[in-house]
Automatic annotation (TrEMBL):
Domain SET positions: 36-185
Superkingdom as given in the UniProt entry: Eukaryota
Organism whose genome encodes this protein: Bimuria novae-zelandiae CBS 107.79
UniProt-listed CDD domains: SET_SMYD (cd20071)
Stored SMART domains: SET (SM00317)
N-terminal signal peptide: 1-19
Entry annotated with the keyword Transferase: no
Keyword annotations from UniProtKB, A to Z: Signal
InterPro entries tied to this protein: SET_dom, SET_dom_sf, SET_domain_protein
Pfam families per the UniProt record, alphabetical: SET (PF00856)
Protein name as it appears in the record: SET domain-containing protein
Amino acid sequence: MLTLTALLVFTLASTSTSCADSSWLTRSHSCVGSPQVWEARPSPGKGLGVYATRTIEPGDIILSEPPIIHFAPSEFRDGVAYPLNDITATLQASFDALSPGEQAQVMSLHAYMTPAEKAGDQLMAIFRSNAYTTGDSLGLFPKGSRINHSCRPNTSQYWSANLGRRIVYANRHIEEGEEIYASYIPLLHPHEARQRRLDQYGFKCTCSACALDQGARNASDQRRQDLAKAFAAFESQLTLSVPGSVVGKRKARKNAEASIQLVEEIEKEGLADYYIKAYHIAAVMHARAEDWKPATLFANKGYETSLLADHNARSAGTKELQALTNHLINKWNDHLRDKAMEHGK
């Protein structure tokens, strides 16, 4: 009788952390430390950029960096950003507590200032232009701030509360000499909306997605808007309960088919930050349709993708995907066992 093993063996790309704890820029803007994974050097039209000094594989850690400034801001308003005027005193106190060398690192960062701000606070402009969210707080990361934006980034990032570090890792193969990109904004918006969100950083994006001809860009925009709607529609259906009615089963089958399209469109757009969410949805939708093989494979794919960032499987999200995969393996085994018993009659 055909069975599945409950033990899944995952082969992860070897990881290497560079420049996390060392002096990070020489006078030639090169990252120092061993092994050398990236260097900061001029990027045409973008000031400094970050470039791979060797081939980097998916899952390789490019940067693991603690925040040089870190504190909880006041209330966040989506689309408006944090009301930074309310945190000026906290920011200044955090900056004053730094060593002269650390202060120099902060003040060397790019600061976009509107005409009204030209005579304003440069420290606040630097912080607004470079800070990242870290859970419920904000953090400033001088090394990672050198990574330029793309709407199809080749890295993903997350805040590790356990380590107190922002981790940047490759989400696809990166060639030696290729520029490394991150994303500054949510990416399921059309081109014009993304450009407006980037106004706070003072530049217009010219990445591979934004540089498409009008027809291809319109198609990309439509995909991103459709993906945002699909994620919202699936959100209320993420339960493993199998429908009992004929109508419910028919709907479950249609949702399973739609989830495959969701995965295909996410991968076509190269939106790696959304891969795990899409794989999770596809796994659950196929489980609701009692299609155990693709359900298990999608759950496993989500788990493997999650492990690219969370190598030690410590996060709640990774543990959830691991449990889901094991549950679906058991369901698939039960299904195969029942079919074998039927054939044996």
